[in-house]
Please model this.
Amino acid sequence: MRAVLASPERVAAVVQIGSESGVFTDEEKIGFSEWVSQSQTTPLNAEVRFGVAKMLFGASTVAQHWWSEWERADRSKITFPADALINRDDITNALVDISCPSLVIHGTADKGGKCGKRKTPCSDRIGLFMNYKSNESKEPLRRSFLHKGTSLFLLLGAVGPSLITSRKASAKQSETPACDAPTPPAMTGPFFTPRSPERTSLVEKGIKGDRMTLTGRVIGTDCKPIPGALLDFWQTDGLGNYDNQGYKLRGHQFTDENGAFSLETVVPGEYPGRTPHLHVRVRRGGGALLTTQLYFPGHPKNGPDFLFDERLVMKYVAAEFRFDFVI
Model:
């Protein structure tokens, strides 16, 4: 968007995907600036290398060549473009000046007001949405998830499938793994706290975020349910904050005789570098421990997240999210 405003004569049309017109917080600026400074003189650690490589290239052979070039290059040249990105200005009020044809694929604040006569959404993040429950609707625009009759605005706004995701494509979104395919593990992360309370609802007074329900089963690779399996959940609140002092949005439970479980919680918020996700540990009896993460279908931050695994995307069925763990 900033390029369109800076040189409109050079732009015929623009497609916006996850575009943001606002600015970074002071905390984010400090963090990104420190990373850029360190990256000019210090080799990146293995975790960051892996994440950036997967995000940019996918193929490890291509990534290895890129890293070799990176190590030899004059990394001081990154200073100017990095500074321009980190200290970008707020152009929210200038969105009405974008006159070229624009296709907005997705955003997170479509419920915001309108800018000028073009009736362009006037908010930090703009977009168009479909509705999971509006199967009869012929107009997929400007709708949000519905949850138990109320709007479920995910993550600082409404997050739904992309405008270009048809109902047929939505039906083909990643399904829960087959019985013969064990649920893949994922990084534990630095925010796990042991000895969480036993409970099936993580919703408490004062918790920020829209409510959601996750249901599913724990089954073996033989497709048989596993009763008494442990599930230990933890997550951020709707603003992307973990409680690292207590046990808010943390709790464990056990599957029933049918291997089923149900969790009431809130939709987690995104934070720098991560798409919204739920952490969970699953264990059967004295068996091996599975640590993994669950993701939301169609979220625009899934792709850029280097930890994202499409096999761990929850299904959205009858106003609930669902996932079956295979261990």
About this structure: The chain has three domains: 26-86, 91-171, 211-326. Helices lie at 2-6, 26-41, 46-56, 60-72, 79-86, 167-171. The CA atoms of residues 131 and 232 lie 31 Å apart. Confidence is low (pLDDT under 50) at residues 107-176.
